[in-house]
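Q: How would the structure tokens look for this protein?
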Amino acid sequence: MALQSKYKQARDQLKKELCEENCIALSRAIFNVIPIMFEKRRSNERLALKSLLGDVVLHQLSIAGEKKIHPLASDKTTVFIIIRLSEWKKYGFNDKDTAHRTLGKCLEYLRSKPELQSIAVNIMETLEDKKILNDFWASKKCEEKKENLKKRRQVAEERSKLYDAEQHATMKEIIYRQDNNVRENFNVEIIKKGGRVQETEKKQQMSSTPNSRKRKSDNLSENNENFKMRLLGYRQSENEFEDDKSDEDETEDVTSDEEDVINFSTISFDQFTESSKGEEIWTLKNGESVRNTLIRMTSEAIKKAKEIQSKKKKLNASISSTIRLGLSSIVDLSSEFSGGMYSWFGGEWPDLKAKALAKINIKPKMFEDLIKSDIEKIEELCNEHKYWEARDFVYEKLKGRPDRTETFHRQVMKIYFFIIEMFLVDPYVFVDREGNKQNLTEIEFTLKVAGPIIDIIFSDVQHLVQLKWGETVSKATTVGRKIDLKIMYRGKNQGKNVELSHSECARRTNSTKIINDRSKCLRTNKSVLDQYLSHDLSDEIIENSAVIGLQLAALYGQIIGVDLLDEGLYFGFEGPLLRFPTQINDITVLKQTLEALYFFKENIVHKAEALSCLNKNSDPFSNTFHTERISKSRHYKANFIRSTYFTVIIQ
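A: Here is the predicted structure in token form.
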């Protein structure tokens, strides 16, 4: 009650002096109110006093502004009060402006009077000290914010690394050890941890199995205890995958890390249509260069897309895909769908496609000699439904100490052993008893087939290349696109990691998803190609500079790639198809798939060896004193490179 009485007395005194318009007395009243106004304790009386004080001072300041003088200027205490109130955050913008202008007039008045100039100097020093103090606290708060942001980023990166280690550990560590214990069975470990196979289902399978096969199955389960499991550090069970999947919709997932709608207002078209600096080799029959035709048709496609967007309609995948590729200077030779790039070149498309493919090697080598005969024997046994005999045949081929001269043959046999045993343990991995497709996720398809097979194929070149599975960020792209499978060179050139190939995986063969993935994969591999061409490679190596990757969708796939054939003119192409077996009686499709995958490996190893030669020719002195000379590429394709278009995503 005493505190409220103090507030009430101060308020009444202010009202009294304001009514009498006694400037000096009002100044004294304001001075007495200041300590009360800045007390930390809150009360309705004090807030009301603040409001009244603000009204009083602003009223006096406005009067002073009209008279061009300040009636209280000769009073140092009042001037200090004006300074404090001019900084009071309770005022709105206009009130603050009035207070500051009046303060300026007050200072002018003080400077004009010799006897008051010392007061003006003291006021200016006070204001300067306040400014320095405010700047100090502002900079300190800014540093604290930066430090907090840095810590948050570190925590986010650590969580991301932990997630990557837990979710994708199996894919990173799927390696078939080349030793005597080649009869490895990672499905048994998954079954133990996840419990996918029910006991009742096991009994049904055993009841319909001949006694000879029962005995072999029993022996297999006993011996499996001594096998080295392929999935080291497996941390997630199949049940967890199934729980995650149970909440998903049956509809197709066609989303990607790029938006379906391109914001054309953000596109600087001139950036992607840089004119050629030299003589263009690739021209059409009408005399127009292929690049100029690509630029012109891309511009027309953008105009049509703008019209569609103006009508509040959504762009389909084919339009978005062709525009993105056109802005990236890529002619997609596989774009032969409705609205695709083939229509941009009319009747000259077949000749253009044939000319480009003649410059690119996309024909894999066929298996020969012993490997071919062994595969034919395996296929013959499987066609006769002699699956256990086929498994034993492959096992006999793998017995004994590994020989480096037979690495290729052993890898192929390991893959067939892995596929046969996977289906013998669980025949319904990909289809159920009625022949319907199992509802598997993208990562499950990769874990079960593509991942193990590709890891076996690259197991003998791990000193050259490194396989990064599972949504890793690419540094070759300007915007950091996420890549499902990124293959990198083990060493470093000019202190930087070099990426050699990008591949994309999808869970289903939806047309929209496939078109979007094709566009993304071609452009990210173009970025890989541009990074590769930035090195000082010989013209002989540059002749075969095409960068290839894999586009996988469920159990299907295809090799795709991109190459730079003229100044500012890239060609995207498609290679052989892939298909993994859905059941053990479908194993005949595996031979063509492996031939394509070994062609994929050969292309990547060729580039890794070329980069390795650059490292051998370097030394610490050259890397220190001649960095500019080393980093500059001198081959004829160095000036052909153009920028790549990626949709900018705001998180």
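The first helix runs from residue 2 to 20.

Strands lie at 330-332, 465-473, 482-493, 496-506, 547-553, 556-566, 569-579.

Upvote if useful.
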